[in-house]
Design goal:
two-stranded antiparallel ribbon; 66% helix
Length: 192
């Protein structure tokens, strides 16, 4: 599975953001929320086949990545993590378009890939993607609170999350998602 993730990461067609936004005084491109979503939409359109393959591959739990040397630049682990980023971006587009089932499928695939990459690591060495993972959970809360969301979809998502995360991580992450979702979940009677 690891080799396939790396192969897929090499097939990603990157879309430059420099023509989308404007540069700040540091020369970095700044995008409005709308421009960022358009950029994600372009990435998603350019990489439909890669996204479909990544989702399928994420459903396999065989194998592990070798321990990551934190000082290696572009190791296979870093390259395969690009797939999780691409899946996150595609999920953001799907949420914006009201395609909540598709968005969930992309978020779950990104989480499975991240956990697959983490499985081969010593815990102290795998901090490099915590910011991205935190962003993914925040976006998942936005998905959960979307106006078209249903209690059935939420319950199914929690079940999927319980399958992805080991028990010690699952409790922390699923509880955090449930706590963030409390006002909306009460309205939908989630869990009843």
């Amino acid at each position: 599975v690891g080799d396939e993730l790396v192969r897929l990461s090499h097939e990603i067609e990157y879309v430059s953001s420099k023509d989308t936004g404007k540069k700040n005084e540091n020369g970095d491109v700044e995008l409005t929320e709308e421009q960022l979503l358009d950029w994600y939409r372009q990435q998603t359109a350019q990489n439909c086949e890669v996204l479909d393959q990544a989702i399928e591959l994420s459903r396999s739990h065989a194998g592990r990545f070798p321990p990551l040397d934190i000082y290696q630049g572009q190791s296979p682990t870093y390259q395969a993590a690009d797939l999780a980023r691409l899946l996150d971006n595609a999920a953001s587009v799907a949420v914006a378009d009201g395609e909540l089932d598709i968005a969930l499928e992309h978020y779950l695939a990104a989480m499975r890939i991240t956990e697959f990459l983490r499985a081969g690591q010593q815990s102290a060495l795998f901090f490099w993607n915590q910011w991205e993972e935190r962003q993914r959970w925040q976006k998942l809360v936005q998905w959960a609170t979307h106006e078209d969301q249903t209690s059935e979809r939420i319950v199914a998502a929690i079940g999927e999350l319980e399958n992805i995360y080991p028990s010690e991580l699952r409790m922390k992450k699923v509880e955090a998602a449930e706590i963030a979702y409390v006002p909306r979940s009460e309205a939908l009677c989630v869990g009843k």
